[in-house]
Design brief:
Distance between the termini: 101 Å
Protein name: DUF3857 domain-containing protein
CATH architecture of the largest domain: Sandwich
Strand content: 25-35%
Keywords: Signal
Pfam families: DUF3857
Radius of gyration: 31 Å
Structural class: alpha+beta
Largest sheet: 8 strands, mixed
Shape: globular
Organism: uncultured Aureispira sp
Number of strands: 35
Length: 727
């Protein structure tokens, strides 16, 4: 009887719990209240002990996602009274249940971070947010649940928000859900979400759901990785797409890992269409794409292939500029194209840049449109009788061209085909250079759009591979002269002269260059308006603005100096700096500048002798941690590159140098190299240290060869010299 009674009680409790769960099947996600979000996540998808039946080796991890869910609902809506013309609802739930296994995870998850206004890969425009909820609770090992009721939400710069999670301990389960609902007042076309499945922690149970009405076409891809998409018709005009996967391993390597190249991912495209049901019936079950079709590319870039009908006047002005500059001098076609690029860059972006940046419109770069710039270049190429085509690519970080889900994700270049060489034109901004395009699209395979007939009315596509730059073209060179500070031998004076070439320029140019002076000099060259120049604008506001820009430049140089030497705290003090070149004109191919610093913490006095941490003078070097020594994925880097250092230390009179042999290193293989040597010339100790990465990509089988030169580079930082007092 006791057993029957207990069974009856248990059945009653289960029935009571089931009845307490709200039936949300008929409720639109956009109508959820905070209690209903809580019911969906914590009742319908409540925690159970079965969730902790994961691979045993995961117990060595820092944390585990027991549940990882992203749920979207996208609906077309007629205009409503309180938002005139509203056309789209986007509702979203992100639900995470994480088991905390060590102190590192405890510290990381003791604050929940999220971005207001953003969900997945899409950020709504300001003012579209209708409502937003965050539910947090802690599940203790004994089953006790603690709901975090009082949540102080702190907002940081850039819209990032955080909420402290009190009473969280190792062994606990953190269970939280973010809900957002937005009303957009315009149609949306594009990738609304894209992310990789491999996270910093393994995932036990992954769920992804998108629900749409009849007006939306959903396309999906996971690249070359097997993820099955299931589809379901929920009602006559409602469709659901879902992905479920279990036991997803964590990211194997975070450094030099282009996740969309190496692991499974989800990229979901949503496009509005009036006749989507008709399109859906034609497509049948083919609801996702794995590659672009030739006709998609041609359709996207047909207009770009045509010459601009308004380009004649500007081309005529360009020819006049050439005639004034070179007079009767015979110049090559390469030089003409170089002049053409800088002239058109000035016309489309730079001549108004001071004005635009002063008024906070610099992001527009005064580009009338990419189409118009392209049309002007193509008009010139036709007048010069130089054949050309358009190369369509996607950045390497986004995956392969075959895995692009929509043509709007692509990028492009104009390729002028000269005898023996190709010249590439990439759309300009104030810092772009001739025949130079972003490293993200170097060495990528793309589609070439070219004319299939002489008249160019029929376009065809074929595959092509963009070139990669040589590592010798992307060099950062540092020449540093070091001496003891007068009156304080615990401090070193360091005067550094720096030169960057190729892609290395882009990391420093924006911060180092006096951009206002750069633009004004360009305006003088092309005889255009010197807006804001002191000779034209003597207002107090402009004077204050110029002073503020110089303050920002100084702050940036302090950051560059500290980043170069990579010393702790306040051990790097910037004394002075000077820009030498801009790398932004037809005559300047490198970015050059100097900076003077005082360095502390590198000298130790031992009796009457001094020990100098001379290895630290080559700046921050890559140090691989223990987890990085073994690697399972290919290596993807921004670009091939080199770093060259010449350090000259003035040895004070009365001291001799010990330990020079410790600085000799020589490793060279197909992936890269490192070479260092120290020598003494009179009272000048010269240390030469060169390190090169020869490619932007290495297969994982070459990781051991990369370590062969990376590990000595990190170890070099520990090298010391002894200055011994002579008897």
């Amino acid at each position: 009887m006791k057993l029957l009674f207990l069974v009856g009680i248990l059945l009653l409790l289960c029935a009571t719990k089931l009845c307490s769960q709200e039936d949300l099947s008929e409720t639109l996600l956009e109508d959820y209240s905070q209690d209903q979000v809580q019911s969906y996540c914590w009742d319908k998808h409540a925690y159970s002990k079965e969730e902790e039946e994961y691979p045993k080796e995961w117990n060595k991890q820092s944390a585990i996602f027991l549940r990882y869910e992203k749920k979207y609902e996208i609906r077309f809506v007629k205009a409503v009274a309180y938002i005139a013309g509203a056309q789209m609802h986007v509702s979203y739930i992100a639900h995470y249940r994480i088991k905390i296994l060590d102190e590192a995870a405890l510290e990381y998850f003791s604050e929940v971070y999220y971005s207001s206004g953003a969900h997945g890969g899409y950020t709504m425009n300001e003012g579209t947010r209708d409502k937003e909820f965050l539910n947090i609770k802690i599940i203790k090992p004994n089953g006790k649940e603690i709901v975090v009721e009082e949540k102080e939400i702190l907002e940081e710069d850039g819209g990032q928000r955080k909420v402290a999670v009190p009473n969280l301990e190792v062994g606990d389960i953190l269970d939280y859900a973010l809900y957002t609902h937005d009303l957009a007042t315009s149609f949306f076309y594009g990738v609304i979400d894209e992310f990789t499945l491999n996270r910093a922690y393994p995932i036990k149970d992954f769920n992804y759901t998108v629900t749409t009405d009849e007006n939306w076409d959903v396309q999906f891809t996971s690249g070359q990785h097997e993820l099955s998409l299931s589809t379901e018709k929920l009602a006559e005009k409602s469709f659901q797409f879902s992905i479920h996967k279990e036991n997803i391993e964590k990211i194997n390597a975070t450094r030099w890992n282009y996740y969309y190249q190496t692991g499974p991912y989800i990229r979901m495209y949503v496009g509005y269409s009036d006749n989507n049901l008709t399109l859906r019936s034609k497509k049948g079950e083919q609801l996702h794409t794995s590659s672009l079709k030739s006709e998609d590319i041609i359709d996207q870039y047909r207009a770009y292939y045509e010459k601009s009908r308004t380009a004649a006047n500007e081309y005529g002005a360009f020819r006049g500029y050439l005639k004034r500059k070179y007079k009767k001098e015979d110049i090559s076609k390469v030089k003409i194209l170089e002049e053409l690029y800088y002239y058109m860059r000035h016309h489309f972006t730079n001549k108004h840049y001071v004005y635009d940046r002063y008024y906070g419109q610099a992001n527009s770069y005064r580009k009338t449109s990419n189409l118009e710039f392209t049309g002007h270049i193509i008009y010139a190429l036709r007048k010069l009788k130089i054949p050309y085509d358009i190369v369509v690519v996607i950045g390497r970080k986004s995956g392969a061209i075959e895995d692009v889900i929509n043509k709007n994700q692509t990028d492009y270049l104009i390729r002028a085909k000269l005898e023996g060489t190709d010249i590439y034109f990439y759309r300009p901004n104030p810092y772009t250079r001739f025949n130079h395009f972003p490293p993200e699209i170097e060495n990528t395979e793309g589609y070439v759009v070219e004319a299939g007939s002489k008249r160019g009315r029929e376009l065809v596509t074929k595959k092509a591979l963009l070139p990669a730059s040589n590592y010798k073209a992307n060099i950062s060179k540092f020449e540093t002269k070091v001496s003891f500070k007068e009156g304080d031998r615990m401090v070193l004076n360091a005067n550094s002269t720096v030169m960057h070439t190729g892609h290395q320029i882009e990391n420093y140019q924006y911060d180092v260059v006096d951009w206002m002076d750069m633009i004004w000099n360009e305006n003088k060259r092309y005889k255009t308006k010197l807006w804001g120049h002191p000779s034209k604008d003597k207002s107090e506001d402009m004077k204050n603005y110029m002073e503020a820009q110089e303050d920002q430049r100084k702050t940036a140089m302090e950051s560059i100096a500290k980043g170069h030497f990579d010393l702790e705290g306040g051990q790097t003090k910037l004394v002075d700096y000077k820009g030498l070149t801009t790398a932004n004109t037809i005559d300047e191919k490198s970015l050059e500048y100097t900076f003077d610093c005082e360095l502390s913490g590198l000298v130790k006095k031992v009796g009457s002798n001094y020990v100098i941490k001379a290895g630290r003078l080559v700046g921050g070097q890559l140090i691989l941690n223990e987890e990085e020594l073994e690697r399972e994925v290919d290596v993807h880097m921004n670009f091939p590159r080199g770093y060259e250092y010449v350090i000259e230390i003035t040895i004070p009179e009365g001291y001799e140098v010990k330990g020079l042999n410790n600085f000799t290193t020589d490793v060279d293989n197909e992936t890269g190299s490192i070479k260092s040597v120290a020598s003494l010339d009179g009272n000048i100790l010269r240390i030469i240290f060169n390190k090169y990465y020869k490619h932007n990509y290495e297969p994982v089988k070459n990781w051991a060869k990369m370590k062969a030169f990376l590990l000595p580079g990190g170890a070099f930082l520990t090298k010391e010299i002894l200055l011994k007092k002579k008897n």
